[in-house]
Amino acid sequence: MLGSSAGGTGSGRLTFGILGPLQVQGPHGPVRIPPGRQETIFAALLLEADRVVSTDYLVDLIWDEDPPDTARTQVQICVSRLRKALAKAGITAVIATRPPGYRLETGEEELDLSVFRRTVAQARVLVKEGRAAEAAEQLRSVVDLWRGPCLSGVPSEALRTKALRLDEDRLAATETYLDLEMGLGRHHQLVGEIGRLVHEHPLRERLRAQYMLALYRSGRQAEALETYREGRDLLVAELGLEPGEELRLLETAILAGDPALQADAPRPAPEPPRQAVGYRKEKPHQLPADTADFVGDPDFTERAADAVGAAGSGRAVPVVILVGRPGVGKSTMAAHIAHRLGDEVFPDGQLYCDLRGTSAEPVAAQEVLGRFLRALGIPGTVIPDALDERAEMYRTLLATQRTLVVLDDAAGESQISPLLPGSGNCAVLVTSRARLTGLPGARRFELDVLDVPRSLDLLRRVVGPERMDREPQAAEALVRAVGGLPLALRIVASRLAARPHWSLASMVQRLADERHRLDELAHGEMTVRASLSLTHDGLPAQHRRLLRLLSLAEGPVLPGWLAGALLDDDRPRPADLLEALVDVQMLDVVAVEPTGEFRYRFHEIIRMFAREQLAELDSPAARRAAAERMIGGWLALAEQAHRRIYGGDFTVLHGRAPRWRFPDGYAEALLADPLDWMDREHVNLVAAVEQAAQEGLGEACWDLATTLVSLFEPRGYSDLWERTHLRALEAARESGSERGTAALLASLGTLQLNRRRLGPARGHLDEALTLFDRLDERHGTALCLRDLALLERLSGRDDRALSLYERATRDFDRVGDTVGKAIVLTQSAPILDRRGEGARALAQVEEALAVYRSVGYVGGEARALRRMGLMLLRHGDPVAAEDKLAEALALVRAGGDLMGEIHLLVNLGELHLAGARPRRAAFYLRRALAIREQIMDVEGAAALRREIEALPDGADDPEPVTTERATPAAD
What we know:
By secondary structure, the chain is mainly alpha-helical.
């Protein structure tokens, strides 16, 4: 039975309860809701109380994707019975009919979920007013509304998913009142309660941190540390993960006896969690890590953070620019400010991009917008090619959000302007060596070197107070020697920390010697070079060579295997070679691979220094050999990824460029999900294509570029497809590779065909075919003939298309490309079907399907099933057709192919429309429309709306309804 609301949650008896088993309490006692359909519908209405729930949604809840023709009628009957049951029990709540469904109208105090949400919001206000005790009391009372797992016993997976999110909200509220009460010094009383919660939720790190803190404050330090160790062992065993930063820092603080952990230490009160309403995409959190020993000027930091945090105070977008010399800490300051503001000021997330403004080829605004749009949930296949269209889509997505955009190392105004949001709710934080005075309304903050006190503070944190106190004059001399430049000071301090037997005075002397060698430099980088040279010279010869060779890599983030390829070292864990560089902070660890190995990044100043050393100390032949091994590694991985996606070396040509041989099992572990790996590494892979061109490695360049189509095509990276191929085409022609030139022209023809630019496509394909014929390269001619046949098919010339398909089939047979032949069989089947050869067409597609399944090419399997479904529908077998389309739909959904899902939903809608089931047709078409709207495909959404509006009224129309709609021509 539902009880009275407690604490600040209002008075009176709750009528409806979903925070536990579904319960209804009338004036005269409990009201029974029959289990099954009525219970499911009533639970759905309560979850969305005072909001309209569509009938289609209710139908889908009960019958998933196989409802009977009478489904809507049965929902109406259930709602009618629910209304009668409530009225009979004397309950005043109304289930109102509101197109396109129903709305349950409840009072403020009638539903436990409404009381919970309102009380959490009230507690948030109390926290901001400094009334922590009252907020904690309200949160405690409202958490007590739970009578068990939300909606336990209701047999609906869809509703269970929503219920689990509400159970998560309960835990978040619990953690918040525990934080508040801990801040009030109640740790003794809370130890038992938090311990029980940790036992119930052992993987929840926030609870474990609270338990550790309560134990520590209660004088039970050993138990607090044991709690950490138990949690770490559990996380590693269950999830293969180390504890998060909060737990790790807390353990360190407990070990150090940090005074800040005491109950009377000032600490900001947590804000109660905001309640999620419905489904929400994951918000972007792309910021690089904050610096633990940050020592910037607090006044400068405060002023810059206030300027960034002014988002929402006016119509203009706040643009803040941090400028300064190389190595002064612009990127570090930007990351610190962004983390300081965080979700509290920008609740919709943070976007980040290193624009590489100091490199030879800064990142284009068009490419940055592509990355940001993907991070905001837009699939690559629908991101427009044009810069202005991408910018419009980007501004639209951010129009109603509070998002921080951090643009690191900008080259100039033209690079930044397209990346500015249109809403004053957002803010932009830029770092640059240039002042960027052409950005109207921007506020500039110029970073200077650290003053002596802050430089000494940084040195003390890294070297240790004992050594500093022993040599105070040497410490000050050391600070002056490096000019207070943060990067130089951090590197020198790290070297001292790694060599405790060195004195500070000896380091001062070494700096003086090195500065004398570089005294011709009057500004800026003089001290940076001196300090970097010190670190470089102290490394073993192999690590000095590795540092130099690593600078050959153009990508922003470096995988660990590069070390092995560059040094020609075949050890099983090549990333181990990089640890010495990490130890002296010449290289930063920025991420972890799925294999457990780390990913690395150069500071740009260190990269520049390493390249100077490379040019001075390594011969051109040595540099070229290392670059060839590195690019051979990218080529080997891309080639294996293609094989895993397609089931073999199908539909692609390869050259004779050498591949780097990876340790046994290494590549297989990296490529467990080959398409995902290619997507994660696409920036490095594109950079490798461009570097191969620069190094004159024409054979590797064209081979890698064409292999990357395995990524570019399914993910919609058409701009990168074109960019890499045009650059590789120059390299292939310069190197005299006719085969590579033909392969690239053929691939460019495919790209233009996908874009429906038939004229340019024909030009590329005809030129490629001529070259392949001259070379007697049958695999290449097969690929060209297949695409030329599709071009003819799209142009309405079926006879010519079939002739070309036949020639392509012969060539695919000659070279043993079974997948290439299967694609021809799938593509040519619609022509045969239109000509009355349905049995032959169906047999072709079945043959192709068998090939796709035999090699494990899932994309081809989905296309073949879709083609079979459409042909079966054309021949009057809607039941079998629906089976095939549904099977294809499951495959594309599992693979995250939104465009494929749209096409199949539309096909299913048309199938039901042809079967005189317009209501069911509308169900599928509306689902397709929702995806079109989700990915901001304006034209596609408009076309679907017109199709939905044209549907006939009524589900019982006795006459079959048909539509004529051109299905996509290409598979």
